[in-house]
Write a structure and sequence with these properties.
The protein is of the alpha/beta class. The chain has 17 helices and 17 strands.
Length: about 475
């Protein structure tokens, strides 16, 4: 996220309350805990409702939430959301995360089993109570929802169909799993979900294709170099496009502010910026919606924009008159400081720090670097926007450069990717404390890995950064 921390600090979110609904909220991996994975920045004005047919999983999630004090509201409800109220058959599988109200299409699963994952396999069936999101919200007095996340193993369209009234109250964003081929009998596919959401006024923004979401015929010698892939499933991101020409005049500024925050939280910073610019251009007379200062302070964190001169960008010139003079001066001074300290580091939009233990054998360390490069290159949508920042205070820069050049060469040869899609990297060595503090402001995360020097994390002041475990 880029803008939300600055919006929060300047009080623009004080009078906004965000309600998130996570449908299929079983917490399998740490990122499934939305409250602690970044969304807590919206607290205390944040309410999270989780729904799952697994009563035990909901009980564990509620216990985990209650175990330590939190400043937001979070409730996990043990009920299956569907398009009607009643009793349905839940088809349990191994692993449990693939259980569904649709039975497995076993022949299809067996067809791709070797290439997809270990399972799923049918286990047993049980009867579960179902209700609709509309009915639940009516019973609980929930007036509106801002964001829906759905992962219910083929039942996404049924859940959406049971939320038609809530869509009319102003849902702004939807992140849903979609399938391109049926792994469950009679399950709706991507085209069905896309058609429904388009009818509710949503636009598809992008896919987030997981590593297991495609068939890669990796064991086929004749096709290996072609890297033939067939899409199986993905997460799809949808937003209400309140800036469409036919909708601009009717979009309330409060909803626009929420939309900008959701887009930013989910990584769509360009859309967030577009919305914030529109807010400022049209509602700057109200301090709550004049975000000129926030925009300037946020964009200085992007080195590639700072290099061009933020105050000289056409979009920024359209709102520069609404910014405070001291903020403009501060941004211009920061740009000059950035030019001398940060820009030579070849930073990109996403800058990820590694702190290797350079005393490890070069060959062993190099193999681990190859693994990390390969993992990051699997994120095709953003890999050419990533720069790896290697901290190297106890090794000669030339030696570190030699290791990384060799690693980069191996990766490029093995994966056979165009140079413009390659990961960039830079080395930070002997810098002053002031320079390091400036560099930190441009880091997005750090990688925790087997041969990392964990003793330096606290000393370098990076514990606030998002941790990626590889």
């Amino acid at each position: 996220m880029l803008f939300v921390p600055h919006l929060k600090r300047r009080g623009h979110l004080d009078n906004l309350h965000f309600t998130l609904c996570l449908i299929g909220s079983r917490q399998i991996v740490p990122d499934d805990d939305w409250g602690t994975s970044g969304w807590s920045i919206l607290a205390p004005n944040l309410t999270i409702y989780g729904f799952d047919a697994d009563a035990k999983a909901c009980a564990i999630a509620n216990q985990n939430f209650a175990r330590s004090p939190k400043n937001w509201t979070e409730i996990h409800v043990p009920i299956a959301l569907w398009d009607n109220e009643g009793i349905q058959t839940l088809h349990l599988t191994e692993p449990p995360g693939c259980s569904s109200l649709f039975p497995l299409e076993t022949l299809q699963v067996e067809r791709f089993l070797e290439y997809l994952f270990d399972g799923p396999f049918p286990r047993e069936t049980i009867q579960v109570e179902t209700t609709t999101l509309d009915r639940f919200c009516q019973m609980q007095g929930i007036k509106s929802i801002d964001f829906l996340h759905l992962d219910v193993q083929g039942g996404e369209l049924n859940v959406l169909d049971g939320a038609r009234k809530m869509f009319q109250t102003g849902i702004l964003g939807v992140m849903t799993e979609v399938n391109f081929l049926p792994l469950y009998r009679q399950q709706p596919l991507f085209g069905d979900i896309d058609r429904f959401l388009n009818q509710q006024g949503f636009s598809l923004f992008n896919f987030n294709l997981p590593e297991g979401g495609k068939v890669n015929w990796q064991n086929s010698t004749c096709l290996e170099e072609l890297r033939t892939q067939r899409l199986v499933w993905s997460d799809a991101y949808y937003f209400q496009d309140l800036l469409a020409p036919t909708r601009q005049s009717s979009a309330p500024p409060q909803q626009l502010m929420k939309l900008a925050c959701l887009a930013d939280m989910l990584g769509f910073m360009d859309y967030a910026l577009e919305v914030l610019l529109f807010l400022t251009q049209n509602y700057a007379s109200d301090p709550a919606y004049n975000t000129a200062n926030v925009i300037l302070e946020s964009l200085i964190d992007l080195p590639h924009l700072a290099k061009r001169g933020i105050t000289q960008l056409a979009a920024i010139r359209s709102i520069i008159d609404y910014a405070d003079s001291e903020v403009i001066t501060s941004v211009e001074q920061a740009s000059k400081s950035l030019e001398s300290i940060v820009l030579p580091l070849q930073l990109r939009e996403f800058n990820i720090l590694l702190i290797p233990d350079w005393s490890i054998d070069e060959e062993i360390l190099g193999l681990k670097f190859v693994e990390i490069f390969n993992r990051l290159l699997s994120y095709h949508r953003v890999c050419n926007q990533i720069s790896l920042v290697f901290y190297a205070d106890n090794i000669e820069r030339e030696q570190a450069e030699m290791i990384l050049s060799y690693v980069s060469l191996i990766v490029m040869e093995n994966i056979n990717i165009p140079i413009e899609q390659a990961l960039d990297y830079t080395i930070v060595g002997d810098v002053t404390e002031e320079q390091w503090q400036e560099i930190i402001t441009h880091l997005n995360a750090y990688i925790k890995f087997q041969y990392g020097d964990r003793s330096k994390i606290e000393r370098l002041g990076i514990s606030h950064l998002h941790e990626i475990s590889l």
